[in-house]
Amino acid sequence: MMVNINSINNIAQTDKYQILINPLRNRVFVQIKGLWIKAESVPTYLSDWDLALEKLKPGFTAVIDLRNMILSPASIKEIHRQVQQKMASKGVRKIAELTPGNLFQTKDQKKNSNEIPVRRKFADIKEAERWLDQM
Predict the structure, then answer these.
(1) pTM to 2 decimals?
(2) What is the distance between the alpha carbons of residues 96 and 63, in angstroms, rounded to a whole number?
C-alpha cells in the first residue's frame, strides 16, 4: 500500500495484513493480503485493531486495501464483521475500500445504523484519500 509516511505509525504487520495509523489525519490504513483460511491464521488481528482504534478519535476515516485479498470462507467474514462493529463503535465517519480495477467503483453506500455510515470503493489510493478528506 502506498501511503505518505509522514506521521504514520505502524500498528501491526504480518504476512496476512498491515495496519497503519496517521493520528494527525485521524486515519487508519489497512492492507489485507492473500487468503485467510481460518481465524487461527490471523490470531492477533482483532487485538491489533483495538490498538489502532485506541489511537484514533471519533470521526476517523479508513482506507482498506483489498486489492491483494483472496475471498475467504464464512468464518473469516465473521472476523471482518467484528472489525466493522469495532469501527462503528469508535465512530468511523467514512471508509474507502481499494479494490482491483475501477470495475468495482460505486456510489456512496449507506449501511444501517449499527454498521459503517458511508463506504465507497476505489481503484486509486489518491482518489480515495481525496474523497475521505472531503467533509
Answers:
(1) 0.83
(2) 5
